[in-house]
Amino acid sequence: MMGSHVVPPATTLEERVAALEKTVAQLLSRSDATITKKDWRSALGMFADDPIMREIDEEGRRIREADRQQVQP
What we know:
- The chain folds into 2 domains: 32 residues; 32 residues.
- It is 59% helix and 0% strand.
- The chain is elongated, with a radius of gyration of 27 Å.
C-alpha cells in the first residue's frame, strides 16, 4: 500500500472502505492522465508508401519463397 494512504488499524470498516475507494479513484485518475492506451490499430498504415519498408517486405517474401522451395519435393 502507498505510504501516505495507510489506514490506521483502529478505524471502522466503513472508514477503511472509504479510504480504499479514495485511493483507487486517485490511482485511476492518475493512470488515465499519464498512460496512453496502446492499440495495435494505431500502427496500421504507418509505413504506407515507405520505400525502405517496401524493400523489407519484398526481401521477406523472397526469403519465405526460398524456404518453401527447399521444403517442396
